[in-house]
Amino acid sequence: MTESKFLTKKKFKKKKDYERVKKYLFSLFSRVLCTVVLVLLLLIGFKMDKNFKVNFHDQVYNQTFPFQEFKKIYQKYFGESLSLKAIDTEQQQVFDETLNYKSLNSYQDGVKLEVTSNYMVPSLESGIVVFLGEKEGYGDTVIIQQVNGVDAWYGNIKTNGIQLYDYIEKGKLLGEAQDNKLYLAFQKEGKFQNYQEYLS
To answer: Looking at the structure, do residues 109 and 190 belong to the same domain, yes or no?
Structure first.
């Protein structure tokens, strides 16, 4: 290889490295600038408008994050995401059931099921735990944002070691009904759905 060809390759490599660093710095600067602008807008909103604070609090603390919509957008632009399924399968419980009940009646925004005492409650569909706590009229409640985009509410349930943002597979154990009642409700985009569509 002649010396002139070697120098040309070296210059080309340096130029490529320079372009890559330039792109990285531009990307970093853009992200920092967007973050600063967003923080400033939030601070201005909190100072100027009392309703802004109430609306912001409602969106952050009372609304569930649409994981499935985010996943679709992520996959569209960045490809397949990492699986949320548990990697360590050594200590998983052997439980794969379908929902069984004696009778059902409409209740508030959903349905009240009569089940056996201390009934072990299975997940109706795979999804992410987005709420653990008490809901008025439902008692201790678990809300699963299912892969189909529907939030399934399981009320009057004592959970079995699950935590917020755990991924739960269909048929896996959520916990036990606290007596012989289990409340279910189904919500999509903030509106309660007809429970009959989701109970087989």
So the answer is: yes
